[in-house]
Write the structure tokens for this entry.
Amino acid sequence: MNDEILTSLPMRPIDTTERPRFAVPAGACDIHMHVFGPSARFPSVAKPHYTLPDGELNHYLKLMPVLGLERFVIVQPSFYGTDNACLLEALAKTDGKARGVVMFEPDISDTELDRFHAAGVRAVRLDLFKRAQQPLSEIQAYVAATATRVARLGWHLQFYVPGYIVRELIPFLGTLEVDFVIDHMGYMLEEDGLGPADFVRLLELTRRGRCWLKLSGPYRIAKERGYGAVEHIARQIVATAPDRALWGSDWPHIPNSQRDTGELLNLLPIWSPNEAVRRQILVDNPGRLFGF
């Protein structure tokens, strides 16, 4: 990551959202979104990568029925680091419709983890972009120690990680004894030197191990090439492991909250034309992983 601070754009009006062009199944879940603000109550980390996004919980709750979504997972953003206060407050307002993914320091107490669990947290997010310059052995030790901390709670790990680190971790990840999820289809960018063979190895890990992949953030992979540039990636994930694929909006699409979340949802029937498989991705898989 570079040191540039990105300017977050205002939220797209809900009435301009593209409506679903397919039958969204009952119980559909968005497994990757973030909640922000207000800044007076929830201060950011000292040097955030972006300005405060326009992403309050109330706006998302109004968006859900437009898209046919009934459940969601709040993922702790790097903007707040390991201070999960904003996320926990949001969870308390969701009447059981949501689960949480927190970030925490290695010295967190079991009592605090238990408190998180009671609030609806079911996973920990590991930001390996922050650790990308560390030796691989140190990254593996950090992951293993975190897995040990959360295993007793039945939590899983969620990796926010550059694809070139994913590539190096694949043999190690195959040894983990807890489930783990990799954000944004593995984040294997061509710009970072990743190729088809690397992605095939990731798919094999997903097929035989405890790995899950998020069908999320297509714009983070495609960059300026358009969503069609990631269609083959998403289709391969669905074909290889439909029981371990998950869909996430990545709302509020930092830093560009002008993006159309409905347009993103309508990519799913292109990636997964089969209605039964879409139900797996939107309902059954999140239900198993997050305990809805």
Notes: Residues 33 and 251 are 5 Å apart (CA to CA).
